[in-house]
Amino acid sequence: MNQRALPPLVVADPDPAWQHQMMLLLQRDFHCYPASTLHEAVQAIERVHPVLLIMELNQPDGDGFALIHYLQASPELRRILIACVTTRSAITDKVRAIRAGVDDYIVKPPDAVTFAGRMVMLRRLGHMARSYA
Q1: CA 38 to chain centre
Q2: How far is CA 68 from the centre of its chain?
Q3: Cα dihedral sign for 2, 124, 69, 17?
Q4: I need a labelling partner for 127 at 20 to 30 A (CA). Which of 4, 7, 9, 18 fits?
């Protein structure tokens, strides 16, 4: 399968090692676009309209919840599936994220096999959501 046929994915994580690891794990199923800040994430999202956003809530230029609210406020962008892969492990953060519209919440560091399976499932849901839109 060539890169053009792969669905776009934005990985918004300020940790370059973690971002690289996620992109390596997912590059077979997605065309990955990196973002190291919320600002870069918005630029990438508006440019490529990904089926999935993987994001760390702790960003150098703000709280990731601002990006979640931005996406949910847009009729066009709210279709993007959101998976928080974050160091925030408090139940209050998990509940807040789900209420804000996050599709999956994974605390770092996740088990690699479980993580890959959940991302493939989200990719399939993204394809289904786009085909019925």
Answers
A1: 12
A2: 10
A3: negative
A4: 18
